[in-house]
Amino acid sequence: MTHNVPLFINGGCRQSESTEWLEVTNPADNKVIAKLPLSTESEMEHAVSQALIAQKQWKEVAVSERARLMLRYQQLLKEQHDAIAQLLSTETGKTIADAKGDVWRGIEVVEQAANIASNMMGETVENVATDIDGYSIVQPLGVCCGITPFNFPAMIPLWMFPIAIAAGNSFVLKPSEQVPLTAIRLAELFQQAGAPEGVLQVIHGGKEQVDYLLAHPEIKAVSFVGSVPTAQYIYQTGTAHHKRVQAFAGAKNHMVVMPDANREQVINHLVGSSVGAAGQRCMAISVAVFVGTSNQWIPELANAMSKVNPGAWDDDNAAYGPLISATAKQRVLTLIQQGQAEGAECLLDGSECHVSGLPDGNWVGPTLFRGVTRDMSIYKEEIFGPVLVCMEVETLEEALSLVNSNPYGNGTSIFTASGAAARKYQHEVMVGQVGINVPIPVPLPFFSFTGWRGSFYGDLHAYGKQAVKFYTETKTVTARWFDDDIPDGPNLTIHLR
Questions:
Q1: What is the pLDDT of residues 422-480, one digit of tens each?
Q2: Which residue intervals define the domain Aldehyde dehydrogenase in the entry (predicted)?
Q3: Which end of the chain has a smaller Cβ tally under 10 Å, C or N?
């Protein structure tokens, strides 16, 4: 039975008055599980205006109390962890293990938001000039907004609004129209934790609603995660309206395999990092670069990948779930066909994947290519599916040249037993997040998520100290007090309560 997805405005769920609705489907069987409203202009205006009112009061709340809200929130999220994961699985198709990881990585960012006070400390210099002191104060921006993708409906919203709100802002969240249910549940729990009404608002919609947020004069900062074309559009449009923007885009992440690496570890990690979450993550390894004789392991890699199967979220034997939509599946299948047509050797083709009992799901099996060159579509494009392409070079220098000539710079890794090779790679590679014998080097929340080049548009990254800087502004004060103004004893009155 389907239901209408509510908006979350002023501390509670409310039904939209929109006349335009989209269907939300379960990607494992493509059955409709909910209907989503395209928020009306009046609803969006109400959400932003109430967020503005709430922020003017919220910014005056002591930073220690804002931190305590995050402590209460992370406790509620932990208590509801499994239930959120199950809800997330129904709308994304993720296996329950993947869904739990999605929720937990978001909780880790909320825990970091509880440390907000130390990250908002200013600086002071006494006597910058004679009897004059200088100091800086860190203050919130106002109303901020987040536009989040389908692939991490818990983690990525939790990258954004907890830190923004802990820093004294209010926040308007526009989750992906494909996975709105988790976002509403996150908002309900935030209110239950004691958040003031209006500090967090959730609206729904597509491009028209996004354009409204990008143009609204009261929204001061925009956070986005999604595809490259959309990230470019968000960044260009948001900055044209004089907003601070961070836009996380696509990726083509390479894992470099040296001949001295641990063969078993390489194969296990390549399988998991390429097809895990159906390859629908911006940090997935989609290119394996075999250096020298390590290319002898490719047949063993193909054998290991052939034993991995997708399935329903509650299937303990499933390694990953379906793609998010029939459109996404067709795009992946088209790229697989293009790879074959362009001359790559397809060692494993998952195009005809079937899952028992779920014939209408968006299934694609593990797919492996060899003999891939730089000019092929399967190398140039982010496939965003369970597809791994293998490339072969003779030296580490060639591997570095390959990775650095790619337009993206989100994540990369090197597997080797050589400290010298690892150091050379981490020093010279032009990628923001580097793993050494770690396949998916997503930083923990006390660092920041630091994609480079075509994978990111903006200056300050998500979570960690950079996020606090993104959601705040610095005010510098120069103060002088005159000794003649110090009151004498008879004129000094102290009021005690």
A1: 999 999 999 999 999 999 998 888 888 889 999 999 999 998 899 999 999 999 999 99
A2: 16-477
A3: C
Our CA angle for 135, 136, 138, nearest 5°, is 150
Residue with tokens 């006349």: 19
Q: How many domains does the chain have?
A: 2
Give residue 378's identity as a one-letter amino acid code: I
Say if 485 falls within a structural domain: no
The Cα–Cα gap between 203 and 180 comes to: 9
Eight-state DSSP code of residue 488: P
Could you tell me if 471 and 350 lie in one domain? no
Collapse the DSSP code of 81 into the 3-class scheme (helix H, G, I; strand E, B; otherwise coil) and give the result.
helix
DSSP strands (E only) in 29-142: 31-37, 124-129, 132-140
Give me 147's structure tokens. 């536009």
SS3 of residue 306 by DSSP: helix
Q: Are residues 268 and 199 in the same domain?
A: no
Report helix, strand or coil for 298.
helix
106-130 tens-digit pLDDT = 999 999 999 999 999 999 999 999 8
The predicted structure's pLDDT at residue 490? 61
Give me the amino acid identity at 428: E
State both tokens at 355.
Answer: 């899952």
Describe the strand order of the beta sheet including 31-37 as a list of residue ranges. 3-4, 31-37, 21-26
Q: Within this chain, do residues 157 and 15 fall inside the same structural domain, yes or no?
A: yes
State the CATH number of the domain containing residue 262. Answer: 3.40.309.10
Residues belonging to the active site: 282
Residues 228 and 265 in one domain: no
Q: Per-residue confidence at 485, pLDDT binned at 50, 70, 90? A: confident
Residue 444 lies in a domain: no
pTM of the model: 0.93
**Which residue(s) pair with 345 in the sheet?**
370
* One domain, residues 66 and 203: yes
Neighbours of 145 (CB within 10 A): 30
- What ranges in 310-352 are assigned the alpha helix state H? 326-341
Average pLDDT of every residue of the chain: 95
Q: How many residues would you count in the chain?
A: 497
Residue 493 has pLDDT above 90, yes or no: no
Same domain, 261 and 243: no
Please give the Cα distance from 404 to 382 (Å, whole number).
Answer: 16
Domain range spanning residue 426? 253-407+411-436
Confidence of residue 483 (pLDDT cuts 50, 70, 90): confident
